[in-house]
Hints:
Elements: E1 2-6, H1 15-28, E2 33-37, H2 43-46, H3 59-62, E3 73-74, E4 80-83, H4 89-96, H5 105-116, E5 121-125, H6 132-140, E6 143-149, H7 154-171, E7 178-187, H8 192-205, E8 209-215, H9 218-222, H10 230-233, H11 238-253, H12 267-276
Helix pairs in contact: 1-11, 5-6
Amino acid sequence: MKIIAVANQKGGVGKTTTAVNLAAALAEKHRRVLLIDLDPQGNATSSFGLQEIEGQSLYEPLLGEASVADKILPTRLPDLFLVPADIDLAGVEIEIARMDDHLTRLAKCLRVLREDGTFDFILLDCPPSLGILMTNALAAADELLTPIQCEYFALEGLVRIVRLIERIRASGANARLEMGGILMTMFDNRTNLSSQVVAEVRAHFQERVYDTLIPRTVRLSEAPSFGKCILEHDPNGVGAKAYRALAVEFLRRHEVETEPAQSVIPSAVQRSETESREPVT
């Protein structure tokens, strides 16, 4: 099992869009995927129409008051599960900041899922900040997937991410963390700037940059307003095709050639899987 943090300290770069739609595309390929929404704004949660659910976030598990397995909900998509976010997450940073192990609270929460082997991948949708929730995600993850908008300051943002990875390693919180991939988003083939930015990022980071480019498209932007991922909202559009291509490349990079995880689903998931797959209206 791999834990992937989808993170960028800058907002508006397609971070949540990537976490949601990559998770959906991997599940479509019969990989068992858990998406954890770590952003108190809950945008990944609302992308599946589950924003009205309260008390299911990582708030209690991070404080040691519940198991993460009890917070897992099924989505409408087979093989895709979600730990939603709610407003309580906004306050958890203050509470765990006082703890001696404040950087590794999430890693300890996810240990049971590593041992269980239920999921092939866990994707962490991080908040667009350098706060405790994001650093916890990096301390728990095997690698970082960074979406970068095709704009002038792309390299500047990447330099900050690389320095953050170095600090996490140096702190001893997660010596195995690495830059797993860089994804260029909001690519517009009508402009020279997009192509120039992609070329420059690839020149500096080489094979870490995904070949797949995520296009700028209205359909990707509007899908969350319908409580759907792009594979549901516009399954034959360019956005869906791009994320399916990303999933193929992602699996090739991770050399995943085996069947999906076969372990028993956590009891909390098993109890509610059938009814929760009903369409959300």
